[in-house]
Amino acid sequence: MAVTDSARTVTHGDVPLPSLIFRVNALFLRHEWIRGYTLLSPTLLVMVMLMCLPVFMLVTYSFWTQNYLDIDRTFTLANYEAFFQKPIYVALIMKSIRMSLFCTFATIILAYPMAYFIAFKVKSNKLVWLILITVPFWTSYLLRVFAWKVILGYNGVVNSGLISVGLIDEPLQFLLYNPTAVVLTLAHAWAAFAILPIYVSLEKIDRSYLEAATDLGDTPSERFWRVTWPLSLPGVIAAGLLVFIPTVADYVTPRLVGGTTGIMIGNIIQSQFGKANNWPLGAALSVIVMLMIAFLVVVFIVTTTRGRAKSA
Amino acid sequence: MTDTTAPGGSLTAQKAAQDQRGEEAPQYFASKHEGYHWTAEAPMFLYAVWYLAFLYIPVLFLPLFSFNDSIYVAFPLKGFSLEWYGDMVSTQQLLEALANSIKVGGAVAVLSTILGLFAAKAMTRYVMPGKGAITAFIMLPLVVPGIILGISLLVITNMVGMELSLYTIGLAHTLVSVPFAMLVLISRLEGFDKNLEEASLDLGEGPFRTFFRVTLPLAWPGILASLLLTFTISFDEFILAFFLAGNEATLPVYIWSQLRFPSRLPMVLALGATILIFSFFIVTVAEVLRRRGVGPQSGSAI
Amino acid sequence: MARDDYISMRNTSKHFGSVKAVDDVTFDIGEGEFFSLLGASGCGKTTLLRMLAGFEQPTLGNIFIDGQPQAGVPPHHRPVNMVFQNYAIFPHLNVNRNIAYGMRKSGLSKAEIDRRVDEMLDLIKLPGYGARGAHQLSGGQRQRVALARALIKQPKVLLLDEPLGALDKKLREQMQLELRALQRDVGITFVFVTHDQEEAMTMSDRIAVMSLGKVLQIDSPARLYEVPQVKEVADFIGTVNLFEGAIKGREGDSTIVDAEGLGTVRSTASGAEAPEAGPITVAIRPEKFQLTFSEPETSGNMVTGTMQAAAYLGDRSHYYVTVDGREAPIAVAAQNAERQLSVLGQHHERVWLTWNDDSALLLTA
Hints:
- The complex is a heterotrimer of chains A (312), B (302) and C (365).
- With 312 residues, chain A is an all-alpha fold.
- Chain A contains 14 helices and two strands; from the N terminus they run H-H-E-E-H-H-H-H-H-H-H-H-H-H-H-H.
- Chain A has one domain: Orthogonal Bundle (MetI-like fold), CATH 1.10.3720.10.
- In chain A, a hairpin with a 2-residue loop joins strand 1 (65-67) and strand 2 (70-72).
- Chain A is globular and about 95 Å long.
- Chain B has two domains: 22-66, no CATH class; 84-291, MetI-like fold (Orthogonal Bundle), CATH 1.10.3720.
- Helices cover 77% and strands 0% of the residues of chain B.
- In chain C, helix 3 crosses helix 4.
- Chain C has helices at residues 45-53, 95-99, 110-123, 139-151, 169-186, 197-203, 221-226, 231-236, and strands at residues 7-16, 19-29, 34-38, 60-65, 68-69, 80-83, 157-161, 189-194, 206-211, 214-219, 241-251, 254-259, 263-267, 279-284, 290-292, 301-312, 316-322, 330-335, 350-355, 361-364.
- With 365 residues, chain C is α+β, with helices and mostly antiparallel strands.
- The longest helix of chain C has 18 residues, at 169-186.
- Chain C contains eight helices and 20 strands.
- Chains in contact: A-B, A-C, B-C.
- At the A-B interface, helix 2, helix 4, helix 5, helix 6 and helix 7 of A face helix 1, helix 2, helix 4, helix 5 and helix 6 of B.
C-alpha cells in the first residue's frame, strides 16, 4: 500500500514490484513513531528486563513461604497476614513515613532559599554555584552518611571537639543513634535532590511576570507569595517526591546513625534477606512499602494539584 | 469620598513601584561587577554560604582525620601522618575491590551511555505517541528505593539460578545509570538543531554516516559527561552492590565490611577521602562539560 | 528538452493525526523553473517541501522527480538538496568542509573537490572564506554557504525553505535578485517556500498559492495579481475590494452585475470563469479606481461617496471611501505623480470613484 499507487503513474513509467526490503524501508520512512520506537527498543528492553520482571517476581515471591532452606511455592497470603498480625511492622512503617516526611520537609525548607539565591540573585557565576551544588549529588552516598557517624559518634568530632575546648566533660550520648540523627543525616545527604528541581522551576519563571507584579503594586514579599511561589510549586512537588520516596525505605542511614531507636522499615526488609532469612516475608514487606508509597504519592499529587487549581 | 481615595491609592502604588525600580536598578549595575548586590542581598548570600558549608564541611572531616596521626577519630588532632594512606595501598583486598569497581564502573558507563544515547535520540528526534509515559518509565529507577530494586534483582537472580557476581552488580548499576545518561544526553541533543542532521541526510549521507559525521561530533561533550557521571554513579553505589555482590566486592561494599572494625576506621577514612576527591574531580569535569553551551548555533548569530 | 512535469505531485496528501497538512494536491513543476510555494504559516507549504526532500512521506498519493517515483526513497538517495530556513551550517566544520560535506560519495579526487569548493566560493562571492569557522559568518554569509553546500551537489532540484526570512530587509532584497540571477545561471529547478508575496513575485516564474493544505492557484506573478481565480487568492495577493453582487445579464462581451455599494457594474475582465447567473463577488484592486473631488464627465462605471480617511505614503496615497449600501469603506490607492504638500482631501469630503470595465473581476461568491 505504501508504494503502489500505480493508477496515476502512466506517464511516469511503471513502478517495479517493490521488494520486501524496500517495503520495510518504506514502512520505516512513512511512520516516524516506528523509527522512534525501534531506536528506543534496546533501552526499553533492558529496563523491562532489569526492573519490571524483577519487581514482578518480587510480588510473586511475596505469595510464597519460606520452609527452612526451601521455598514453598503454593499461593498464600500468610506473609501479609503476618504483617498485620505483628503491630511492630505497621508501627515501623508509620514511623518510617513520619521520619521521611519530616526529612523531606526540612530538606525543602533548607533548599528553597538556596535555589532562589542561585536562580535570582547570582548573575555572573551561576555555573560555578550550580556545579558546587551538584557535585555532592553525584558523590558517594555511603561516604556522606558515614561522615555523620564520624561527626556525631561517642568519640566523634563534635564530642571530642567540645571536650577539647572544655565545654563538656563527658561525651554527649544523645547525638548519635536516634531518629533525629537519621533525619539530619538524610536531610544532608539528599539536599541536592531538592535543590535542583526547585532551581529549575525558579529559573523557568519569566522575569517579566515579576516585573509586572511589581509594576502592579506588589511589595517584594507579596510578589513572592503571589507569583514566584505558585510558579515554583511544580519544582517543590518534584523535590518532595524525589526526597520522600527513596528515604522511606532507606537502609544505610538508619543502620549507620540510627541505632535501635532510629531503625526504619528498610532495615527490617534487609534483615529478612539476611539474618532472619525469610525472603517471602521480606518480599511482602517490600510490596507493602511500595503500595504505601504509591498511595501517598497519589494523595500528595492530587491534593497539591487540586489546591493549585482552586487558587488559580 | 471613594473618589478621592482611589487615585491616592493608585498613586502610592505607583510610588512603591517606582521605589522598587529604584532599588533594583543599582542591583543590575552592581551585578556586572560582583554577581549579587552586596548590601541588599547580604542575608541571602550569607545563607547560601552557610548552606554550602552545611553541604561540604561534614564531608571534609573525612580527609581531615585521614591525615591525623591517631587511631581515634577525635579532636584534638595529633599530628600529620600518611600512615593510613600507606595502609590503604598495601591492603590486598582493598586493591582487588578497587579493580572490581573500576571494571564494573567502566562497563556500566559504556553500556548505560549507549542505551541512554539510543533513548535520548529517539526522544528528541521523533514524534511518538506515549513519549511522556515512556520517559516516566525510564526515570522510574531514580525514585524506586534502592533496597527494593536490590532485593527484586536478588530474587530474580536467585530464581533463574544465576550466580551473584560483578555481572549482577553491573546490570543493577546499568538500571540506575540509564536514566541519568538519558537526561544528560537529551539536554545535549536538544541543544543543537535537528536540521543539522536533516541537512546531512539531504546532502546524501545515510543515517549511520550522519550519526558519525554530525551527531557524534556535536554531542561528544554530553557523551563524555554521561560516561564520567555513570562511571561515578556505579563506582559510588552501595545498596545494590550490597545485595548483589558475590564473592568479589566493590569498593563501597568493602568499606561497609570494614566499618565493623574500629581499628580499620582511619584506613577507611583515608580510602573515603581518596574516593571523594577522585569523585569530585570526575564529576566537576563532567558538570563543566555538560553545562557548557552547545556553541554557536546556526541562524542565531544574526 | 526541458520537460513540464519535472516534478509531479499526484494526489499528494500528508496527514498528521487528524490534521491534513497537505490535502490532495496535484500539480507539475517544469524543469529549470523558479517555482514558489506561497501561503500563510501552517498552510502546508513547508510540509510539501519536506515531502520533496524526503523528510516526510506522503500519507496518500505520489511524488515524482524527473519521472522517478519517490515513495520509499530516503532523503539521502534523492536528487534534491535543500537550503534550510536557519541554514543548518555545521558548527563543527569550517566553510570549506561544510561546502564539501556532501561530496564524499562523489568519487572525485580530493584536489577536484577542493577546486569545486573554490568555484562555489567564487559563485557565492565569498572567495577566501574557506577556512572560516561557521560561527564567524554573518547571516547573509551563512545563507550563501548553505546555498553553495547544496549547489555543489548539482541537484536536479534545489529546495529553499524561507531562506531569506532571517535577513534584514535591505539584504533580503539584494539576495532576492542574486538568487534569481544565480538560478538563471545554474539552470537548476528551484522550489522556494515563502510567506512573503513580494518576495515570491520578485523571483518566481510561477507561484502556487496555498491555504489549509490545498493549492488555490498556480500562475505567473502577473496573472495571480490580475486574474485571481478565487477570492482567497485575490485577497492574499495584494489588497482588494470585494463586493457581493448578483449577475443581471450580458451585453456582448460585458457582464452586467448589481453589486453592493457600487450599483450596476459593467465587467469585461477576462480570465476567470464566472458563472452565468446568480450570486457573485466583484473584485477591484485599489489602484484601479480613479478618485476625483468633483463629478467627472463619464458614461462608464462610477460611484460617489465620502472620504473616511486618507494616508500619505510618499510614492502613493491611500484613501478610504464610504459609499451608500456598503459598510466597509472602499480602499483606493493613487500614485503621487506630482509633488504635493497640501492635505489631500478632508474628512467627509464628497468624492467620486471611476474605473474601467476590465478592472472589475468576477469571482465565484
